From TrEMBL, chains A, B:
Protein name: Pantothenate synthetase
HAMAP family associated with the record: PanC (MF_00158)
Residues reported in the UniProt entry to bind beta-alanine: Q61
One Pfam family named in its UniProt record: Pantoate_ligase
Pathway assigned to this chain's UniProt record: Cofactor biosynthesis; (R)-pantothenate biosynthesis; (R)-pantothenate from (R)-pantoate and beta-alanine: step 1/1
Family: Belongs to the pantothenate synthetase family.
Chief location bin: cytoplasm
Function summary: Catalyzes the condensation of pantoate with beta-alanine in an ATP-dependent reaction via a pantoyl-adenylate intermediate.
Keyword Translocase applies: no
Keywords, alphabetical: ATP-binding, Cytoplasm, Ligase, Nucleotide-binding, Pantothenate biosynthesis
NCBIfam families recorded: panC
Gene Ontology biological-process annotations: pantothenate biosynthetic process
Amino acid sequence: MQIVNNISDVRKIIKQWQREGLSVGFVPTMGYLHEGHASLIEAANKENAKVVVSIFVNPIQFGPKEDLDKYPRDLERDSKIVETSGGDLIFNPSPSEMYTEDFSSFVEVNSLTDGLCGAKRPGHFKGVCTVVTKLFNIVTPDKAYFGEKDAQQLAVIKKMVRDLNIPVEIIGCPIIRENDGLAKSSRNVYLNSEERAAALVLSKSLEKAKEALKSGERSSEKIRDIIMGTLSSEPLAQIDYVEIVDSISLTSIDYIENSILIAIAVFIGKTRLIDNFTFKL
Amino acid sequence: MQIVNNISDVRKIIKQWQREGLSVGFVPTMGYLHEGHASLIEAANKENAKVVVSIFVNPIQFGPKEDLDKYPRDLERDSKIVETSGGDLIFNPSPSEMYTEDFSSFVEVNSLTDGLCGAKRPGHFKGVCTVVTKLFNIVTPDKAYFGEKDAQQLAVIKKMVRDLNIPVEIIGCPIIRENDGLAKSSRNVYLNSEERAAALVLSKSLEKAKEALKSGERSSEKIRDIIMGTLSSEPLAQIDYVEIVDSISLTSIDYIENSILIAIAVFIGKTRLIDNFTFKL
């Protein structure tokens, strides 16, 4: 397994692989890898001859008051996880390698980004789409793997790839959870023990919604009340959003009759966590 | 020479070429080809094993009051020019092949687009960058050829390719002119005989500016006055802009000391024509 910092080197290595007819799977990450990322790398390893993992905390997808500076980083630990999971190459560029001083080109998906995290984090998806386009152009993978935990991100990337004819297949992989249900996230490391216990309220509230849906409840408002009620019972939790949307268009719905995405974002102390599930009738 | 209308077919053909190790040159056009386009195709033919020419009048780069509907089209004539100039494949998609009804992803270059045509045609370069990105993703060429007549377009495309790491080399080719000096343009067909004679005032005004520069004039204002004076002497001409800018940043300059671009846009009757030259000290 190699670690490469600059664009021209990573291109050379991948071009050589492609000349030999080897398929390339790609897992873009912001590092501080957990079992969720490992599952993406393993999936890529199963379906491709070579696997590239990028580790880049992308400054342009963070808002001015967000956690760019304190976002956790640990390349040594990450390298071990990539190697164990079957990765062949880590691309770990510096911000200046990715963004020259006069950088001024951006990629934007105008639909799908109005609600959910898009509404709460203005400019976030423009930053995500721009960096993912750049990474796709550098790595030129056959397939790229994204976690379903960032459900809106996955939908936006799929739309961008379709609209702009980017020659890559996007593959979504299921959320990986701790034993007690908390969705794995690099940001879980911010939680102290009290907050870690409180964070369980996210997955618990979604479990309750799932039960109600299985029992036949079809009113978005009632499902939303169930989730809000559970979240509100936790004093350390502050709700950012609870949304019930069509799983393709990501637009709000009143009555549940198709495939829906229930997505939540909740502050536990100062840490913003997200979770979701898709329910098909 | 083949003509292909849909994206998946053109991809298959080009993929097969690339598997055989053949390099691909690409000339994106809006059709109604003239000797300027032919010179691009010839340049592509010299430097690549295969040459793809796209013919697509891109609706999203036209403003609501512009000439989208009456833009001239003649595929039969174009095919002959492509064949004679050394093209191997014409990609001629329909608007619906390129833009699905829910299309919503865009590429934008925020610098370089404020002045010149960008100021006069809001949204134009967003439309150009988006379609060129799509075409690059469909054709995946090694090199792509653009005319220097659209000097701002060439600068914007180069910037986009650099910023977004698009794996293609952009090659600018010199303006091709009629014997009397008028820059070749698909829009010249709009001109009646009186307007055709009047249109000469564009290249004439630039020639006068060139002479003044060669005689040592370094004041942008004075050079601008020379151009404006010549253009104003033609009753059928209505000036859209006359700009003297740095040839890289496209920002206005007062005193000429580096490489500059002098670009003009002039209505002759209802037809908007552009012309330019680059001057290096």
